[in-house]
Structure formats: C-alpha cells, structure tokens
Write a structure and sequence with these properties.
globular; 312 residues; 46% helix; alpha/beta; 12% strand
C-alpha cells in the first residue's frame, strides 16, 4: 500500500514538471508563435542595410524577398512563394518612394504585417528620364525618383529610418538595432569624406546619365545633369535620341561625363563618346551583389574610383 502512494506521488510530480516545461517553452516564444522575430526585405540594397543593422542578433531572422539579380522593383509582382514568406514575417522593410508598386496587394493579402519604409521623410528628386521629344518608354516610374540608396548623403537617413522602425516593432532587440546602426553609420561617414574629395576633383564638369538612379550620385558629386536617358532594357532608343545627346554635349565634350551601366547603355554611351570626346564611366546601380555585409560601401567606393579614372 505504501508503495502505491509513492508511485502516485512520483507520477503527480512528473506531470507537474512537464507542465512547467510547457509553460517555459511558451514563454520563450514570440507573439507570432515562431520563436524568432522575422524580418523580410524587398530587394538587395534594403537587405544590405538591414543586414548591417539586424544581422547576427540572436533571436532575429533576416530574409530577402527577391533574388539578388532582380534589380529594381518597378515592375515586380510578388510570387506565391513571396507571399508565403511575407505571411511568416513580423516586419517587411521596403525602400518606398514608389519603388514597391505591389504594396497595395501585399497589404490586402497580409493584413497586420508591419511595414518599415527606409525613405520616410526623405526629399526625393524629380524624375527627368524621357524628358525630351521622341524618347518613349513602356515604364511609368512616376514623378519621383525612388533610387534614394544611390545618394550617400541620404543613406544615413535611410539607415536611421530602418533602425528606428525595427526598434519600434521589436523592443526586445531595440538597443542592438540602434547600436549596430550607429556603427554602420560611422563607416558611411568615412566614405562621405572620400566623396567630398571626388566632388572637388570633378568640379566644373557636367554629366549625361543613362540610368535615372545616377541622378542621386550626380547630386552627391555636384555634377549638373544635361540629360537623363534611362535605358532599362525596354526603353526605345532612336537615332534621334543619340543625336539629341550629341548636340547637347557638342564636339568638345571632355568636360562632360557619360555615366552608364553595363547591362543596357554602355554601347550607346561609347557611340556618343566617339562623336564628342566625352569620357564614359560604367557604374554600379548597387541593386545586385553577393550579400556581403560591406557590399554597399564597396560598390559606392568603386563608383567613385571609376568616375575619377574617367576624368583622368
């Protein structure tokens, strides 16, 4: 009989301890029920900024919605896989400014998803692409230029907006986000000093741009923009377009920089260079890469070097 009572006591004790274990597991889970704070970014330049702010923090998981070769998102439509990822997220970090044209659809399909916008309260440049007669494009990028990550002068605000947004959405890791952002901004400030040097070096020159995102880089460097001919793969480029640019530059174009990207506009820029003598600089739009944490700084610094070499 005594052994029976001992057996019952042991069983009750085991059940009690099991209950404590269940409570402990529940307490360790986040409100969303998956145990980690999940951040999803819209595309590569946003991901790199968030990686510097949230990467390596225990209890935080970071994913990018799009492939690193996607480029800009003007015409992007989320796939079923993308929507599954967003349904599992706590926060979606976007560039904003009209870059993610699919946000209305996301809001309706993933109600309650937290949104952090990197370009909040930021002055956007006006779009100038396709402004001259005869240049037509199938894209409608709106009146505002959303490529704010290309401006180092704005990038610190970009980082601040992300850090403060994440801190508000995830108070548990708020201090870590803010500390990491402060560290990253110190590296950005160092690059700002290099940008000032290049700005002085190219002083008195002007630019023709073959990508609308380079408007921000030209502003950073104090380069007046003669024309923007945005060649994004579907834009129709005519002989009249090329003739128009040649006429703007003139026959002695050494003081005009032709800023283009490799994929779409290099051959056209080189044709114009042969006619005018204007130097060509093939630059990175900072929308693709290997996910390295310092890839933004490396690519921006590389652009500065290429511009300096073109001037020399």
């Amino acid at each position: 009989m005594k052994n029976k009572y001992v057996f019952v006591f042991v069983m009750l004790l085991c059940i009690s301890l099991a209950g404590v274990g269940v409570i402990a597991i529940s307490a360790g889970s986040s409100e969303s029920g998956h145990g980690e704070f999940r951040i999803v970014t819209s595309f590569y330049p946003v991901y790199v900024a968030v990686e510097n702010i949230a990467g390596g923090i225990e209890g935080v998981e970071l994913s990018n919605m799009t492939e690193p070769k996607t480029g800009c998102l003007h015409d992007y439509q989320p796939s079923t896989k993308d929507m599954v990822l967003l349904n599992e997220a706590d926060v979606f970090v976007i560039n904003g400014g009209g870059m993610e044209t699919f946000m209305e659809d996301v809001a309706s399909r993933v109600p309650g998803l937290g949104i952090v916008t990197a370009s909040d309260n930021m002055e956007l440049l006006e779009n100038r692409s396709g402004s001259h007669e005869g240049h037509e494009t199938e894209h409608d990028h709106g009146d505002k230029n959303a490529h704010v990550w290309m401006s180092l002068a704005r990038y610190e605000t970009f980082v601040d907006n992300i850090a403060s947004g994440l801190a508000g959405a995830d108070p548990v890791h708020a201090l870590a986000y803010l500390d990491n952002a402060a560290d990253y901004k110190r590296s950005v400030a160092e690059l700002s000093g290099e940008t000032d040097g290049v700005r002085e070096f190219v002083k008195g020159r002007r630019a023709v741009l073959f990508q609308e995102s380079f408007m921000y880089l030209a502003e950073d460097l104090g380069l007046p923009v003669l024309e923007v001919l945005d060649l994004d793969g579907e834009a129709a480029v005519s002989a009249g377009d090329i003739s128009h640019i040649i006429d703007l530059i003139g026959s002695d174009g050494e003081d005009t920089l032709l800023l283009c990207e490799e994929r779409y506009s290099r051959s056209i820029a080189e044709t114009i260079s042969q006619a005018t003598g204007a130097p060509v600089s093939v630059l990175d739009t900072l929308t693709e890469g290997d996910y390295a944490v310092d890839s933004y700084l490396t690519s921006y610094r590389s652009n500065l070097k290429k511009i300096t070499e073109a001037v020399k």
